[in-house]
User: What shape does this take?
Amino acid sequence: MRKWLLVHVWLITGVVSASPCTGIDRTLTDAQKHAWAPVIAKQLHVANVDVLQVFREGDWRVIYVDTHVSDNGFLFYRNDPLHGTYVNTWAGAAMKDEEVSIGQWVQHNVHGIPTPLATCFAWHVTQDRDM
Assistant: This one.
């Protein structure tokens, strides 16, 4: 009972901190999935893709896709995939202690990406991979 009370108090007082993805728009509609999938598949030169997740900050998007022929991957876009091609990709596994190095990789290889989105991505793939 005491543990539950302590957790409850932490939640009420805000002691539990927000993740680096707090404030990043992760809304993904079925309409977006259906519109983006054939465009992204064409860009990747594969038969089809499933759009699994999106992370959005301003005009930038990081879109997580399943290509059915390789590892699932994250595609970095400056804008909507319907209006441009991806800037870079990232796929694979990440260890919890690689958060900083992955964040640095994003900043160096995806020029212009907003820092909050790069930070969210690095945290997500190392600390909170849910797909």
